[in-house]
Specification:
Belongs to the class-V pyridoxal-phosphate-dependent aminotransferase family. Csd subfamily. Keywords: Pyridoxal phosphate, Transferase. Its EC number is 2.8.1.7. It is an enzyme of class 2 (transferase). About 40% of the residues lie in helices and about 15% in strands. The chain is an alpha/beta fold. The chain has 2 domains: about 130 residues, Alpha-Beta Complex (Aspartate Aminotransferase, domain 1), CATH 3.90.1150; about 250 residues, 3-Layer(aba) Sandwich (Aspartate Aminotransferase, domain 2), CATH 3.40.640. Helix 2 packs antiparallel against helix 11, helix 4 runs parallel beside helix 5 and helix 12 packs parallel to helix 15. The chain starts with a helix and ends with a helix.
Length: about 400
Amino acid sequence: MSFDIDRVRADFPILSRQVNNRPLVYLDNGASAQKPQVVIDAITRAYQDEYANVHRGLHYLSNLSTERYEAVRGIIARFLNAPHEDEIVFASGATEAINLVSYGWAAPRLQAGDEIVLSVLEHHANIVPWHFLRERQGVVLKWIEPDADGSLPAQKVLDAVGPRTRLIALTHMSNVTGTVVDVAAVARGTDVPLLVDGSQAAVHMPVDLAVIGADFYCVTGHKLYGPSGSGAIWISRARQAEMRPFMGGGDMIRTVTRDAVDYADPPLRFEAGTPGIVNQIGLGVALEYLMGLGMANIAAHERALRDHARDRLRDLNWLQVQGDAPDKGAIFSFTMQGAHAHDIATILDKRGIAVRAGSHCAMPLMDFLGVTATARASFGMYNTLAEVDALVDGLQFSRELFA
């Protein structure tokens, strides 16, 4: 499928609605993306015509549901170019996925004084699980700060690695500044295990795990135009072998007796209980939709949006955009003198423009930037150059109100 923006927009029914008697301009994709009709239809079909619990059922519907559900591992593996589909562990999203690594891999291996290197660009999902280890086991969190333009050079990460470093945990793309981190260069430069939060990056550009060379890479479905409550983490076989189960219950065991438990092989070992069956099926459909469009095509379209937005926003000398790394994604967080971020978002909403305001689950970054909150416009594959202009017009209107 070639990338035709009008055709793409037609696939998303919500984009045709109005908000406050204005055409919806949805620029909150960094929080959650909208869903194409094929995903909505797949969810409806799964509940209406095909639903049953997965695994071990002998009847037709259980077998069909299991087939649909398990096929998603292969789809995710293809989307990320993962070596083996059994390295794909389902999760409800990146938060659960990173907690799985914290509890299942890091906690049994790290001791007081051992270090985890991470950056102030991280989302709380890639911060709080490591604070658990700091609080409970005396693990040291070693922080890296970006350059003045928001860039985070790989060498700066590598320079922070020391003899007690046991893990590097990095975002692939900041959800606040759009900074893209060269995680492949980090992986090449050290033998220390690397966890990458791909929640933002996997939405906006091709991801090739064979090139990146990380040990853990997580994605979250609701940003990938799929359902909330869906996602996955790729864990190399070598790291899987070092992990203990995160949660105990059904589906992650072979046998249970009064005296012992025999755990299932990965990935089921890390997937206790009845999973989000329909959510993951919906995610699989969303990823097939993205691959049909072509991630390189999506990335090219979003680069055009980024460049146009960057040029237009630079003309607003009263607007402070946070972070301007050269190869950043189409994410713009900003402040305006005399107006709180929540005020900006409220005024834009009256014009049908949806942006997010607050700390964006990135309080260490807010502290580094010297702000308490920003407004954020985050673009997706269905946004247009005209919507960039609508945002700028809305910001100019906001400025006039607060000037």
